[in-house]
Amino acid sequence: MEQQLAHHTINGCPVNVGDLMASGTISGPDPHEFGSMLELTWKGTKPLKLNNGEERKFLQDGDTIIIKGFAEKNGIRVGFGTCEATILPAKTLTF
Q1: What string of H, E and C letters represents the secondary structure of 73-93?
Q2: Distance between CA 68 and CA 1 in Å, rounded?
């Protein structure tokens, strides 16, 4: 994780307190086990239908993402609760 943080920041990526970072997508071999929009939409070739009838190939500005996670073994469950964020438009740089 230290190397990932260094890689992001050395290239100018702003990292703030509370940012959630991950080392990759944990997915299974079957479609119901896919873990990213890229996998779920087959690289954007198969859009997902949302409950409101809209379709998405990729995440868009204004979309809210909710992640919940836990691991369980031998009756012991550990998780990180709910992580929720809304995608904001990219900042426009002016020189």
Answers
A1: ECCEEEEEEEEEEECCCCCCC
A2: 20
Q: How far apart are CA 74 and CA 70, in angstroms?
A: 13
Note the pLDDT tens digit of each residue in 33-50. Answer: 887 888 889 888 999 999
Nearest to 35 by CA among 45, 25, 43, 44: 25
Predicted local distance difference test score (pLDDT) of residue 71: 85
Q: What are phi and psi of 68, to 5 degrees?
A: -130, 135
C-beta atoms surrounding 35 within 10 Å: 13
d(C-alpha 22, C-alpha 51), whole Å: 28
3-state SS class at 32:
helix
Domain boundaries, the chain: 2-86
State the DSSP string of 27-78. Answer: --SSGGG--SHHHHTTTTTSPEEPTTS-EESS--TT-EEEEEEEEEETTEEE
Do residues 52 and 64 make contact, with C-beta atoms less than 8 angstroms apart?
no
